[in-house]
Amino acid sequence: MNAQTSTWTPAPTSLLTDHYELTMLQAALRDGTAERRSVFEVFSRRLSAGRRYGIVAGTGRFLEGLREFRFEGPRLDFLQRTGVIDSATANWLAEFEFTGQIDGYAEGEAWFPNSPVLRVEGSFAEACVLETYILSVLNYDSAVASAASRMTSAAGSRPCLEMGSRRAHDQAAVAAARAAVIAGFTGTSNLEAGYRYGVTTIGTAAHSFTLLHDDEESAFRSQLQAQGLGTTLLVDTYDVEAAVRKAVELAGAELGAVRLDSGDLAVQAVRVRELLDELGNPDTKITVTSDLDEYAIAGLAAAPVDSYGVGTRLVTGSGVPTSSMVYKLVARENAAGDLEPVAKKATGKGSIGGRKTALRRRNAQGVATHEIVGIDTVPVDDGDDRPLMQPFVRDGELLDGWTGPDAVLRAQRRHAGTMAELPRAAARLSEGEPVIPTVLES
Amino acid sequence: MNAQTSTWTPAPTSLLTDHYELTMLQAALRDGTAERRSVFEVFSRRLSAGRRYGIVAGTGRFLEGLREFRFEGPRLDFLQRTGVIDSATANWLAEFEFTGQIDGYAEGEAWFPNSPVLRVEGSFAEACVLETYILSVLNYDSAVASAASRMTSAAGSRPCLEMGSRRAHDQAAVAAARAAVIAGFTGTSNLEAGYRYGVTTIGTAAHSFTLLHDDEESAFRSQLQAQGLGTTLLVDTYDVEAAVRKAVELAGAELGAVRLDSGDLAVQAVRVRELLDELGNPDTKITVTSDLDEYAIAGLAAAPVDSYGVGTRLVTGSGVPTSSMVYKLVARENAAGDLEPVAKKATGKGSIGGRKTALRRRNAQGVATHEIVGIDTVPVDDGDDRPLMQPFVRDGELLDGWTGPDAVLRAQRRHAGTMAELPRAAARLSEGEPVIPTVLES
């Protein structure tokens, strides 16, 4: 980690939104309901693909984007010019500034079905317009963090490195790197993630570097010269055994690591480990990087591998490329001025009305046993429990500690703590039930 | 389409890159190979998941980003401060400007295994640093376009509307909307896509709008008042039949459409169509929007549905969330100054050396029969063929016609033309072989 204040701010975020958020706003402004006090909540009805738990990520990135969620200049002109909104709505948007409350699960925290991951309270108008942006950020980042957590869990004490940028949208790749680090990855290849969030970046050379040179030896010499003996040499461009011998011949016992990026990694790792030891390089490490996911990592547990570079499967959520989080109106002021619960009743997509608060129930040994979600009631800590709702925004003011590089570092520590608290069954990769049940209290 | 010049330019793109691109650059600058003339190519070894064809998207977005691919200010400082690069490399990057040639398949075009989708020629240094960014853009955008094309193909003449923003990273959502439109979608819910690319945006109201009001009737009245009788009313918040009756009672025969977002869509569409007809609303359309993909769309072909709103499965590539495109050095200048083919030989990930050019072979009826890829040779048009490589950049200068809103519109037309040219089997949704074989000529 290289945490420090970054000068980076996101581009305007206000149009990263569905058209209907603004048509609803316009109708509500006209009929007088726009200012009704409202409670929206982000939650998921299920853990996808039989996962045992999910990991929250993206909240900090959303809060950074919230500051740039303004309607002005050419974007506001666009909305009027194309008839998305009328001039009254344009005037409202030009003045828009979120003035409400935002609470939720901190990044790195585990989530389960019906966990109130984020709760947004304010007028209908100001909470409505944030829907799409909030869901985009949380659904993608949490999908990556949830997959990443299974990978770091399967890897045990061996480091996992994020290398999936080329398999994700260019900006999604930055978010993926951030989410992976939150879930325990030790570094990323993505430079923009290093720049924005202070995370450690890593990388040495690709096959093209070997091919650029007239022979492998020239490439290795050049890389050792430029990066030092501690670098990682990629040894599978031509013949792996010949490459390892050459690498040791050139670098000696100080050679940092060799990288395998193709073939049967378990078999090759054993051969390369034997060869390195035989050549007098017991301290040279082996890193593997080809099509890894949590299952492949678990399958390599007995192989002499020192670190894992994970790409495609990480940034695409290892089979779950998006979370199924939704943003639902669960309570709003009625004509009489009282807050009342509301819920959609239709088939299969019903929601539970009422304002939620959550805590993680733990037994006397500190092991999590239940996710307790109170509906219009705050669940009572029985002595060993841990409250889960954190305050992020108060009266529109962003509270300290949830954004920037430091927040990523803290989220990584929080993830480690949360994982240590879950029952051991959380580490199971097979499909099954959530590792702790969610209990709704009202 | 609402094509016009947008004032939008992307944020700096140069760090949307893997760390190792710059460490390779640094070593190559030191050893003198950085200026070797090189040819890199983007291609995929396969079509994932038994798809019959893929659709290229992202090229225009990459070309827009290439103009912002500059190393300066705080980003360049970051690279030096964190030791990613030395000062000589920093000096080189500060002056960086791509000066080479870029050719490839136009957006909207079909691609097959080994199609040279993009070819970048220049010095090793200038082509190397673009790798990750190019792949991020093409892999994501083409994954979405490829899925979208199967959906528009399955939908036939019924419009498909993109509504997946909340299930994709916030910026990926914009690219997904653009890619979907290229592959035949008629509009998107994503406002930023409308702003940047001039594509049509659509949307009316969500369940939260109904819940905001004291009853469904108040919500419908408000929406009809604000949006006019031609709007689409969401009728499944409580009871569908009661909602349809109320909608017709309030709007009369002019009601534009009703939307179904849950339940068994085929069964409900039949019931709602009958009810609308019975109530004297034969012109009121039915749009459906719940968990659709190409298979669900095909399954609804016989149902009285007028348009499809597609979300999650579109923006996640319908099971293929990223393309498997790679960027490989296929030829480079040797020590003697001659360009020679190069290729990685290792297991399973081998590449084919040599500079590629492609054309689509067509029979006398204009039906595509083969993808012809010439290796260090330009395949000869036999009279009915269509050359596939388009020039995008010449000596570093972006050529006209490949970026901005107009390029999206042209790509959409190109997609329609390409699809009309492929054999009918291209429309099969089952897993199988590419609909035309790729023939390598050398």
Question: How would you describe this protein?
Answer:
The structure is a homodimer of 442-residue chains. In chain A, helix 7 (170-182) crosses helix 15. Helices cover 36% and strands 19% of the residues of chain A. The model of chain A is unreliable at 1-5 (pLDDT under 50). A seven-stranded antiparallel sheet of chain A has the order 13-12-1-5-3-17-18. Chain A is globular. Chain A is an alpha/beta fold and 442 residues long. Chain A has two domains: 19-129 and 324-441, nicotinate phosphoribosyltransferase; 145-319, Aldolase class I (TIM Barrel, Alpha-Beta Barrel), CATH 3.20.20. In chain A, strand 6 (160-162), helix 7 (170-182) and strand 7 form a beta-alpha-beta unit. At the A-B interface, helix 1, helix 3, helix 6, helix 7 and helix 8 of A face helix 1, helix 3, helix 6, helix 7 and helix 8 of B.
Q: Give the name of the CATH superfamily of the largest domain in chain A.
A: nicotinate phosphoribosyltransferase
| Protein chain pair with the most extensive contact, residues per chain | A-B, 109 and 109 residues
Helix percentage of chain A: 25-40%
The assigned CATH architecture of the largest domain in chain A is: Alpha-Beta Barrel
Q: What oligomerization state is this entry in?
A: homodimer
Quickly give the structural class of chain A.
alpha/beta
Low-confidence stretches of chain A: 1-5
* CATH class call of the largest domain in chain A: Alpha Beta
Number of helices, counting only DSSP H or I runs of 4 residues or more of chain A: 15
Shape of chain A: globular
How many DSSP-defined strands of chain A? 19
Rg measurement of chain A, Å: 25 Å
What's the CATH topology label of the largest domain in chain A? nicotinate phosphoribosyltransferase
**What is the end-to-end distance of chain A?**
43 Å
Number of discrete domains of chain A: 2
Q: What strand line-up does the widest sheet of chain A have?
A: 13-12-1-5-3-17-18
